[in-house]
UniProtKB/TrEMBL annotation, chains A, B:
The encoding gene: argJ
Record site feature (Involved in the stabilization of negative charge on the oxyanion by the formation of the oxyanion hole), residues: T107, G108
Stored PANTHER family: ARGININE BIOSYNTHESIS BIFUNCTIONAL PROTEIN ARGJ (PTHR23100), ARGININE BIOSYNTHESIS BIFUNCTIONAL PROTEIN ARGJ, MITOCHONDRIAL (PTHR23100:SF0)
One Pfam match: ArgJ
Organism field: Caulifigura coniformis
The protein's name: Arginine biosynthesis bifunctional protein ArgJ
Task of the protein: Catalyzes two activities which are involved in the cyclic version of arginine biosynthesis: the synthesis of N-acetylglutamate from glutamate and acetyl-CoA as the acetyl donor, and of ornithine by transacetylation between N(2)-acetylornithine and glutamate.
Length: 393, 393
C-alpha cells in the first residue's frame, strides 16, 4: 500500500496518549501545492480543528495535513482554536510554507486541551521523518488510531493518458461513528491534477456512498473530517472521458476505508450489510437502511445470531418513510423470512447458522420503485458497552 | 392502588408464555359503556391489535380492554387481524356486548401467530375472574408484563363536585421503548364523565409530556398503545373549571407510569433525567433532550458512572437544532461541567460519585429563549445486550 507520487508521510509518538510508546502524531505532505477539498461533520458542536481546516478548503495551495490522536480538541472554546492554528503554524515553519496551507485534524476525548509542549517537541520530529515509503504511510495511519485495533488504508490505481495514477487513503474509527455528510478522520490523496470545484464534487459523491453509509453507534462525532488532496505530480489532468472512471476509483477507496471502520468497530463481531431495494427514491431507501443500522435492538440480535426479523422490519417502519406492510419483504443471508407483510415458514436454525459466519446481509425489498441504498453496520456487543462505560475515567 | 368506580379487572395464565405459571392474559372491564380515546404507535409497521383498536376509538360505548403478553401479533398479515378481531368477539360473548366495544392489545415477540386454542380456553376464565379489588388490578398489571420485573400502576384522586374521583392506570415496558406520539401498552381509567373529543385532547396532552418523553433504546415499537377509558360512574362531569386540575392529574398518572418503565428498563442500573432549558421552542428542546436520551455513547458512559460530558453536548449537537457552542452550558447532578462553549474546572471524581447513586440529572442550558423539555432514559449495560442477543432463539 503506497502513497501517490509526490506525497510523503510519517507517524511518531509524542506522548499525547497515556502509553508513551503509542504513535499519536501523523503528517501527510505533498512536495508541491495541491488542490484540497473536504467534507466535515454536520454536528452543531464541532472540534476546533474542523473549524480551522473547514475555513481553509477548497484550496489550490495545500502542502499537508497534520493529525493527532488522544485528544480531539473539541468543546475547548477559543483556546482550542488558538491551539489548532498554532499547530498548523508549527508545521508550516518546519515545512517552509504558510500556516494556511496546512490542514489539521484531531481525534480522541472531547473537552480536553491539546498538550502544546508535547506537540512543540513532536512536530519537528514528525516533519523531519516524512518519507514516501510504504512503512511511512503505514506509520501515519497508525498514528491516527484511537480505539482502532488495526490501521486502515486503501489504494486504487488507474491508467490514464498512458501513465499510472494512484489514489491512496488512510482513516480511523472505531466509535462515535454515524457520519452525517462527513465522517471520521480520513485523508485521501492522488497524484492527478484536479481543480478545486471538481475535487469537491468528486469527494462529496464518493463520501455519500461510503462514509455516510456506515454507523457504529449513530453518534455523529464533533470531529468527522474527510480531506482529499490532489497534487498533479503525474502531470495527468483528468479529462471528461476519465471522470467517471476516476469517480468510481475514488468511491472504491472511500468504501474500502469506511468498511474497514465497521470491521474494526468497538466490540464488533459481525459485519452487517443492509440493502434496501425497490424504493421510491434513493433518499427514502437510505433513510430506511440507516434506521435499521442504528437500531440497538437489531444490533444486539445480530450479536446473538438471532434471526429476530421483526426488529428489522419495525426499524424500517419508524424511519419516517411511508409504506404498507404488504409492500415489504425481507431476506437474511439469502433466506426470505417475511414476504409481502406476512411471515414465511423459514428454518430459523439455518438463518442463525448463516449469521454465525460473521457476515450478515439484510435485503429489504419494497414494491415502490427502482431506487436503492446500501449501508453498513456492526453488531452491538457487551464488549462495546464495556469499552465505552469507562473511556474517560 | 385501586381501580376507579365501576371498573373491574383480572389477570390469568393461559399458556401463551413458555412458563405456564406466568400470567399472560389481562382484562379490564367497565360495568357500563365508557368513553374511550387512544394514542397509537406512528411506526408504519403496526401490530394487528393496533389496527383493530385504532379503528374503534374514539367511542362512547367501550366496555373493556383485553390484553395478552407473550405474542405481539404484529407482522402477521390478514390472519393476525382475523385473530385480533376474533379475540374481541370471544370476550364480547362472555361480557354480553358487541365485539366493537372491546379493545385489544398484544405484546411480545413479533411475527408469531396468536395461539387461538389457548386463548379460547383462557378468555372465559379471565372474564369470569374480574373483580374490583386491588389484587385483581395488580393481577391484570402483572399479566401485561413481558421482560418487566415489576408490575407498573399509578393512581391519582381528585375532589370534584364534593365527590372523590379516581384516575388509575397500568402499563408495561421494558424494551423496544421510544414512543413516538404513542407508547408501550397502557390502560388509564377514570370514573368521571367525559365526551370523546375532550378525552382525546386530555390524553394526547398527557402522553406528549410522559410516554413520548421516555426512551430505552429509541426503537419505536409496532404495538405502542395508550388507551383511556372514562365511565362516569361517579356521576361527575368535568366542568371547564376543573379541566386544568384533571389534566394535571392525568398527566401525573401517565408520567408516573412512564417513569416506572424507565426504572424497570432491561438491564438498567441508572435513571436519567434530561432537562433542556432556555430553548427557542419546546419542540427544539424536546429534540435535543431526545437526542441525548437515544445516544448509546451517553448511555454507556452513564453505565460506567463516567462524566464524559462531551458525548452529551455532541448528542445535542447532532439533533438537527441549530446553535453555537457559546450558547450552551451543561450541568451533571448540579455540577457545571461546560459553560458557554468551554470546559469548566470540575471535580470529575465528585461527579462520578454523584452518578453512582443511580439517579442522574443532566441540565443543558441554552441562551435562546424560555422554552424547555424534560425526557427520561436509562443506561445501556452489558446486561441489556445479553437480554436482547437471544430474545427469540
Amino acid at each position: 500500500m503506497h502513497l501517490p507520487l509526490g506525497f510523503s508521510a510519517a507517524g511518531v509518538a509524542c506522548g499525547i496518549k497515556s502509553d508513551p510508546s503509542k504513535l499519536d502524531l501523523a503528517l501527510f505532505l505533498s512536495d508541491r501545492p495541491a488542490t484540497a477539498a473536504g467534507v466535515f461533520t454536520q454536528n452543531q458542536v464541532v472540534g476546533a480543528p474542523v473549524k480551522v481546516s473547514r475555513s481553509r478548503v477548497p484550496s489550490t495551495t495545500v502542502r499537508g495535513v497534520v493529525l493527532n490522536s488522544g485528544c480531539s480538541n473539541a468543546c475547548t472554546g477559543q483556546r482550542g482554536i488558538d491551539d489548532a492554528q498554532w499547530m498548523t503554524a508549527a508545521v508550516a515553519e518546519q515545512v517552509g510554507c504558510q500556516p494556511e496551507d496546512i490542514l489539521v485534524c484531531s481525534t480522541g476525548i472531547i473537552g480536553h486541551f491539546l498538550p502544546r509542549q508535547k506537540l512543540a517537541e513532536g512536530i519537528p520530529v514528525v516533519s523531519k521523518s516524512v518519507a514516501a515509503g510504504d512503512d511511512h504511510f503505514l506509520a501515519a495511519a497508525r498514528a491516527m488510531m484511537t480505539t482502532d485495533t488495526v490501521p486502515k488504508q486503501a489504494m486504487r490505481k488507474l491508467s490514464l493518458g498512458g501513465k499510472t495514477v494512484t489514489i491512496s487513503g488512510a482513516c480511523k474509527g472505531a466509535a462515535m461513528i454515524a457520519p452525517n455528510m462527513a465522517t471520521m478522520l480520513a485523508v485521501v490523496m492522488t497524484d492527478v491534477r484536479i481543480i478545486p470545484e471538481t475535487a469537491q464534487k468528486l469527494l462529496t459523491q464518493a463520501v455519500n456512498t461510503s462514509f455516510n453509509c456506515i454507523s457504529v453507534d449513530q453518534h455523529t462525532s464533533t470531529s468527522d473530517t474527510v480531506l482529499f488532496l490532489a497534487n498533479g505530480a503525474t502531470g495527468i489532468t483528468i479529462g471528461d472521458t476519465a471522470m467517471q472512471e476516476f469517480q468510481q476509483a475514488l468511491t472504491d477507496v472511500c468504501q474500502e476505508l469506511s468498511q474497514k471502520i465497521i470491521r474494526d468497530a468497538e466490540g464488533a463481531e459481525h459485519f452487517v450489510t443492509v440493502d434496501v431495494i425497490g424504493a421510491r427514491t434513493s433518499e427514502e431507501a437510505y433513510r430506511m437502511a440507516k434506521s435499521v443500522c442504528d437500531s440497538p435492538l437489531v444490533k444486539t440480535a445480530v450479536a446473538g445470531n438471532d434471526p429476530n426479523w421483526g426488529r428489522i422490519v419495525s426499524a424500517a417502519g419508524y424511519s419516517g418513510v411511508k409504506f404498507f406492510e404488504e409492500e415489504c419483504s425481507l431476506a437474511i443471508n439469502g433466506i426470505e423470512v417475511y414476504r409481502a407483510g406476512a411471515p414465511t415458514q423459514f428454518d430459523a436454525d439455518a438463518v442463525s447458522a448463516a449469521m454465525k459466519t460473521g457476515e450478515v446481509h439484510f435485503v429489504l425489498t419494497f414494491t415502490h420503485g427502482k431506487e436503492q441504498s446500501r449501508c453498513w453496520t456492526c453488531d452491538l456487543t457487551a464488549e462495546y458497552v464495556r469499552l465505552n462505560a469507562d473511556y474517560s475515567t
